[in-house]
Amino acid sequence: MTDQQPSPFERGTDGPKVIVAGVDGSESSLRAAAYAGGLARRQNALLAIVYVQPLMSTGAALGAPVADTTEEIAEGLAEEIRTSAERVRGIWDVRWEFHTLRGDPYNGLVTAADDLKADAVVVGASESAGHRFIGSVAVRLVKAGRWPVTVVP
């Protein structure tokens, strides 16, 4: 027998301990967050809800104040999640955190999942027709092959 030291971090050995849910305000992302919340509750895992604020859009290129708008979206999402959590407190308890980052959604979710040592990532199916050509965030996360990824319609 060899004397091996256990690794300081091991993913997925006793079920997920951290589940990352990507939200962007779309209906599918909110369904994904609800689904991830159910998983987190059943597994007694931490639910990390992540909103990635876009850095630049066509509106920004034309001079529209995007930073204020994305910050308002982040604050609105956080408030909506807090309100929902309060409504079901005592019936449906789950540990959760809200994180917001700036950047593109794929890289933001990868960064959050890595930083939080996520065991699973849950995202909503893309509602954009353009993703048929360039690939959705969900497809890119699956192809990365770093975590189990659940895509919620």
TrEMBL record:
Coiled coil: none annotated. Residues 17-153 form the UspA domain. CDD domains: USP-like. InterPro entries: Rossmann-like_a/b/a_fold (IPR014729), Universal_stress_UspA (IPR006015), UspA (IPR006016). Signal peptide: none annotated. It holds the Pfam family Usp. Belongs to the universal stress protein A family. PANTHER family: STRESS RESPONSE PROTEIN NHAX, UNIVERSAL STRESS PROTEIN UP12. This is Universal stress protein UspA. It comes from Streptomyces niveus.
